[in-house]
Every structure is written in C-alpha cells, then in structure tokens.
TrEMBL record:
Originating species: Gordonia bronchialis (strain ATCC 25592 / DSM 43247 / BCRC 13721 / JCM 3198 / KCTC 3076 / NBRC 16047 / NCTC 10667)
GO MF annotation: an example: acyl-CoA dehydrogenase activity
Protein family per UniProt: Belongs to the acyl-CoA dehydrogenase family.
GO cellular component: cytoplasm
This protein's name: Acyl-CoA dehydrogenase domain protein
InterPro entries according to UniProt: Acyl-CoA_dehydrogenase, Acyl-CoA_Oxase/DH_mid-dom, Acyl-CoA_Oxase/DH_mid-dom_sf, AcylCo_DH-like_C, AcylCo_DH/oxidase_C, AcylCoA_DH/ox_N, AcylCoA_DH/ox_N_sf, AcylCoA_DH/oxidase_NM_dom_sf
Matching PANTHER family: ACYL-COA DEHYDROGENASE FAMILY MEMBER 11, MEDIUM-CHAIN SPECIFIC ACYL-COA DEHYDROGENASE, MITOCHONDRIAL-RELATED
Acyl-CoA dehydrogenase/oxidase N-terminal domain ranges (all copies): 45-124
Subunit-structure text: Homodimer.
Cofactor(s) needed for function: FAD
Length: 428
C-alpha cells in the first residue's frame, strides 16, 4: 500500500534554494514602483539564476526548455513562489503565460511554436488570454458574443473583451471567439493567436479594481478592457481545430487551479507568519497578544486550515499526475472554493491582530487582503465550483427503496432480528 507524504531529497534541496532566493531577492521588488520595462530589466539577472538552477518554466516538457515536473512538484514550487506577486514571473511560470504555453505546446503547430511558443518560454514575449466579456457572465462562457467569421482568406474578429489580465504588457493575445453560432453550445467557439499590435485590436484601458483602484498604465498585473474591430488574421492563427475552443481551454484550467491554490497557500503562510510574529510582542490589557485566548484560537484555526488546504490540493495534484485531469475534476473544484475562503480568512485574522498597522500600507497585508477577494472569482466564481462538487457527489447516491432511510433504526432492527433469530432465542 503506497501512502507517502515525503519529498525526494534532491527536489527538497531545490525547494530550499527557492525559498531562500524568493525571500532574499524577489521580496525586494514588491516595495519598488516599477513600470513594465524597468521590471523586466530588474528581473532579468534573477531569471538567469533560476535558469542556472534548472528551474525555469518547469511546467513544460524538457524538449521545450522545461523540467517536465508533474503537478505535485509544480504545486510545491508554486507554494513558495506564490508568497510574492513576482515569484512566478521570475521563474517563468506566471499566469496567464504558463497556461497559454501549455495550450501552444498541446495543440500548436510547428509554425506557432516557432513564432510564439519558443519566445514565450524564453521570456522574450509575454501573453494574455481573452475569454471574458462585459455583457456575459464569465461563469458561462458558452454565451460568448465575440465572433470570428471566415471570408475565404482571413478570419475577421469583432467583439468586446473585459478584465483581460496583462493585456497592456503582452506581445500577443489568445482570443476565444464564436466561429459556429449554430453548433452545439460547447462547439461554437475557437481560439486564435492575435499579435497585440494587430490593426483593429485596442487595449482600451487598465481597469481599476479592488486590488488596484488606480492602475498606472504599462504595469505588470493589470486587468484590461479590450476591443476587436475587424481584426484580420490568417488560417494559421487558429489554435487547434475549428470549434475546439472549449476543449483547448481545459488544457490550462485544471493544472492552473492547482497552481492558484498552492500560491494561495504561500500567501496564507506569509500572513500567518506575520500574525504569529505580531502576537509575540504586541501588548494589550496587561499581556502580549500571544497570551490571549482569541488570538491563540485564530492561530490554531489558521494553522489547521492551511494544512488542510495544502494536503487537499496536493492530493488533487497527485490525482492529475496519476489519473489525468478529468479524473480529478471534483478534487480541483473543491480546492478552488475551499482555498479562496481560507486565503481570505487567514489574511483577515492577520490584519485584525495588527490593528491599524495591518490596515495601513506599511505592511503588505492590506494589498494581500484586497488581492485575495479576487480569488473567489478567478477561473469561475466559488458558487459554480461548490455546485459542481455537490452535483458530482450526489451522482453516487440514489433514493432508498420505499424512501426509507438506509440508516432507519426500526427497519434495521427488524432485519437484525431475523438475521440473529436463533441467537436471540437462546438469550436468557
């Protein structure tokens, strides 16, 4: 019986190096207000150190310059990298580029690899993924209205995209558009690679949000409004086959949610560390906070929840490695909403323990708190994932015979009496 919670010693050495490197080098970038070109120059030498360690773009196969790590190893890496917004960027596994690279690696042509994938993997290009629209619920992408029509020579794309991460700093965009409006709802859409400077494609603005109310243009981590007006691309721009838009999207969604959750664990651990440190020296009503039962309860609850999320997420990653993404659908949906709640709750407790200091911008907690709110929306709202988990569990149940509960004691007593009638007759 295999039941192993250990990490290979050689890989643990890599994780230890990553942890030290992230804290010593990448944390520093958080307190600098760098635009995109300056940030790229700042991270370039750090990315070279990552390459020297053999940890660059580890989510892809070795022939593509990655390490071919499975989801468990990638999850353990993302736990460390997720403690800072710039961790994945320095290691070449940031969203949405990592998911886009996986799509290209899975269904891209040789020409698409040469033009887009290899520069993306080398850190020479960056990308965005345009799915959501302002007039349609992102939780139901079958309602897309952005269209791509074929005129005999080119595809012509028209539509309005909303909250497209990193569009302002990307070199190309993968756009999901309707190519067959009368087809089955999951066969209506296809995906296209569009250069960011294509005529008719306009990044209208960086959208202010809870996370970043007043975004500065041309900065990493933005969310953008994008319009497409008669954008023309050739047949070589399509990713995968016509009508495969939703099938292709699944390549990035399952593993992506594992990485989201492991990054959230890294953020929650960082908030947990700040909370525990604060409790050791901050005094109120005659003793330090560490002596207060409520604060101790918060610390204990946070530790238990982080550990539960970590093990549940790694189990989902293990199932993907062993059985494939489809077999792990229920596990992936479960960690998505479970992880978002834990991330919020741990950060919220850490803010409370710090009081006005935690609420101020003198600590990273206030930014972490604002960013954590989006976790309940990313890759589908929590409500959709909770409903999916419940439906999948309910498939394993059916109404009992005569609608008498399986555990109904009088019915069970009758069956037991018949089964043990001889024994009961001998009982004094």
């Amino acid at each position: 019986m295999a039941w192993d919670f250990s990490t290979e010693p050689e890989f643990q050495k890599k994780l230890d190096w990553m942890d030290e490197f992230v804290r010593a080098e990448i944390f520093l970038l958080e307190v600098l207000d760098l635009d995109w070109p300056t940030l790229r120059r700042a991270i370039a030498p750090l990315q070279e150190e990552v390459r020297a360690q053999g940890l660059w773009a580890a989510h892809l196969d070795p022939e593509l310059g990655g390490q071919g790590y499975g989801q468990v190893k990638l999850g353990l890496m993302q736990e460390i990298l997720g403690s800072t917004p710039y961790g994945p960027l320095v290691f070449g596994c940031q969203a949405p580029d990592s998911g886009n690279a996986e799509i290209l690696a899975s269904v891209g042509t040789d020409e698409q690899w040469e033009r887009w994938l290899y520069p993306l993997l080398a850190g020479e290009m960056y990308s965005s993924f345009a799915l959501t629209e302002p007039g349609n619920a992102g939780a139901d992408p079958t309602n897309l209205t952005t269209t791509a029509t074929w005129d005999g020579e080119n595809w012509n794309l028209n539509g309005h995209k909303w909250f497209i991460s990193n569009a302002t700093t990307s070199d190309f965009m993968i756009v999901v558009a309707v190519t067959d409006p009368d087809a089955d709802r999951h066969r209506r859409a296809s995906q296209f690679i569009i250069p960011i400077d294509a005529p008719g494609l306009e990044v209208v603005r960086d959208i202010g949000s809870v996370e970043n109310p007043r975004p500065r243009p041309n900065t990493y981590g933005s969310h953008c409004e994008v319009t497409l007006s008669d954008v023309k691309v050739g047949p070589d721009a399509m990713l995968g086959g016509r009508g495969d838009g939703f099938v292709v999207a699944q390549v990035r969604l399952g593993p992506g949610r594992i990485h989201h959750c492991m990054r959230w664990i890294g953020q929650a651990r960082r908030a947990f560390d700040m909370m525990c440190e604060r409790a050791t020296y901050r005094s109120a009503h005659g003793s330090v906070l560490a002596d207060k039962q409520t604060v101790r309860n918060w610390i204990a609850d946070s530790a238990a929840e982080i550990q539960a999320l970590r093990l549940t997420t790694l189990h989902a990653a293990w199932r993907i490695d062993e059985e494939g993404t489809s077999a792990a659908r229920k596990d992936i949906a479960l960690i998505k909403f479970f992880g978002a709640r834990i991330l919020h709750d741990v950060i919220d407790r850490a803010v409370q323990v710090h009081g006005s200091l935690g609420y101020s911008a003198d600590l990273p907690l206030e930014f972490m708190y604002r960013a954590a709110r989006a976790a309940r929306l990313y890759d589908g709202p929590d409500e959709v994932h909770r409903d999916s988990v419940a439906r999948q569990y309910l498939k394993g149940y059916a109404p009992p015979a005569g609608e008498i509960p399986t555990e109904h004691i009088p019915t069970r007593r009758t069956a037991a009496t018949e089964r043990f009638a001889e024994l009961l007759a001998e009982q004094p």
